Amino acid sequence: MLLAVDHGDFELLKIVSTAVRKMSEGELLQIEKARKLDITEEVYYEIITVKTASLIASCCATGASSTGATAGAGETLS
Known about the structure:
The protein has helices at about 1-5, 10-35, 40-65, 70-75. By secondary structure, it is mainly alpha-helical. It starts with a helix and ends with a helix.
């Protein structure tokens, strides 16, 4: 992250920041549902989408971004 800041790679920072936000929201939802024990299959899939899937998508997008690929290519990979 520090290298991205040093090199002004704001696209990479945007990708990672968005992923961290989504993952944090998913974690909060998971904590909320774990306390109430009222999780449905739909909510479960929402949690894994915003946590695990957003992490994997951001890894693909940062890989594309780091090679100089266009923004469209990064979005396709994520």
